[in-house]
Amino acid sequence: MSLFRDDLNDTISQIQVSTIRQFDEEVSAIPDMVKLTLGEPDFNTPEHVKEAAKKAIDDNWSHYTGMAGLLDLRKAAANFQAKKYGLHYDAEDQVLVTVGATEAIATALTTICNPGDAIIVPSPIFPAYIPIIQEARATPLFMDTGVNDFVITPKMVDDFIAAHPEANFKGIIMNYPNNPTGVTYVEDEIKALADCFKRHNLWVVSDEVYSELTYGSTHVSIARFIPDQVILINGLSKSHAMTGWRIGFLFASKEMTAQMKKVHQYYVTAATTIAQKAGIEALTNGMDDAIPMREQYQQRRDFVYKTMEGLGFKIARPTGAFYIFAKIPAGYEQNSMAFCKDLARKNQLAIIPGTGFGEQGEGYVRLSYAASMEKLQKAMDRLTAYIQNPANKKA
Questions:
Q1: What pLDDT is recorded for position 5?
Q2: How many Å apart are CA 106 and CA 230, to the nearest integer?
Q3: Which residues of the chain are under the pLDDT cut of 50?
Q4: Would you state the pLDDT for residue 70?
Q5: Neighbours of 137 (CB within 10 A)
Q6: How far is it, in rounded angstroms, from Cα 307 to Cα 98?
Q7: Structural contact between residues 230 and 335, judged by C-beta atoms closer than 8 angstroms
Q8: Which of 55, 121, 123, 320, by CA, is between 20 and 30 Å from 18?
Q9: CA-CA distance, 157 to 118, in Å (whole number)?
Q10: Which contacts of 145-154 are long-range, i.e. CB under 8 A and separated by 24 or more positions?
């Protein structure tokens, strides 16, 4: 007899497991499946970073660090932001080391949200932000970015706020380079948005974890223009292929950092000490570790983009991260879940339905090109075979 009780937190009971993870697990059971589902670098962590972790183990770095993380790591992170992006944070009281960027998101949103607050969520978007907002008893309000090729403009924000006069707007999510679209921003666009957010007095939770993976331009952080309004999130997962090490960062004003530190303490105490020691190596001697990875990602992007456009997919050209977000061609199943399941069943290719990124993603699919060229070639061959098969068209 089950002893499970259903008198749980109502918000938690209503939250669903990510569609991305559910779909990935479902298709994994199909034999000979080519998966381009999860957003994880296919590269290994650089050798010098792994050696630093091994040394940390041998040197008995096996105890807690302070809640904010090792000061040497915070200094390395602050220095990285200064040299790469022209940002200036005091390592002592403006930087927190988190358990990945995901914990950073949770800590930031928990700190700023009160019950009844509204957070602008540009959509389609990586889904992790939404349940965290809901857990804080705030309300995510979804702004459709598809109307402008997934690029936010000040007018879109102005119009969205005007259309919700009843909402108590507290902040906005910025994620760029963006997951799932791969879209990012140039300096003029970011400065204009910063002026808009300042005018509306919005907190900006800016997830810039893909900042080292931009193509054709250098990443510009919105924290350059309104640092006191921005909670900046970054980490080592994408820049240094360290997803499993779980090292992220929060950068903010002294006052905001002090408040977030309290949330962070009770969530996790501190990030793993050995991973922090590896992080110091990554951000000092490995400051440019992302460059060779970025070059390969760009080649892969160009190949997949050209192939899918040739098959009739409409794509806003990605300028960062490692994703293609593509509109399903006319004449095919437009329900993205049904399309992806059919593709997986018939041609053993797994890509993510656009609805995994919100209602605004319906009719689209997301593909991760964080995979070898050999694997991508096989994937594109299978996609081509599916699209060119008349039996897969809708009557």
A1: 66
A2: 15
A3: 1
A4: 98
A5: 12
A6: 39
A7: no
A8: 320
A9: 13
A10: 145/181, 145/360, 146/360, 149/183, 149/316, 150/124, 150/178, 150/181, 150/183, 150/316, 150/325, 151/183, 151/185, 151/189, 151/316, 152/122, 152/193, 153/189, 153/192, 153/193, 154/192, 154/193, 154/195, 154/196
Give the list of residues 6+ apart from residue 108 with CB closer than 8 angstroms, or none: 205, 231, 233, 250, 252, 260
Is 170:202 a contact under the CB 8 Å cutoff?
Answer: yes
Q: What pLDDT does 249 receive?
A: 98
Q: Which domains can be identified in the chain, with CATH numbers?
A: 10-44+290-392 (3.90.1150.10), 63-284 (3.40.640.10)
At 348, give phi and psi (nearest 5°): 55, 45
Closest C-alpha to 280, from 257, 247, 253, 250: 247
DSSP assignment of 352-391 equals EEGGGG-GGGTTEEEEE--S-HHHHHHHHHHHHHHHT-GG
Predicted local confidence at residue 4, as pLDDT: 64
Separation CA 75–CA 229 (nearest Å): 22
Q: Which two tokens stand for residue 291?
A: 């460059």
pLDDT at 21: 85
Residue-by-residue DSSP string for 310-327: HTT-EEPPP-BTTEEEEE
Q: Please state, in angstroms and rounded to a whole number, the distance separating the CA atoms of residues 115 and 108.
A: 15
Q: Are strands 364-368 and 352-353 parallel, antiparallel or unpaired?
A: antiparallel
Write down the pLDDT at residue 2.
58
β-pairing, 248-251 with 95-98? antiparallel
What tokens does 324 get? 């293609």
pLDDT at 8: 81
The terminus-to-terminus CA distance of the chain in angstroms comes to: 50
Q: In the 8-state DSSP scheme, what is residue 46?
A: P
pLDDT at 66: 97
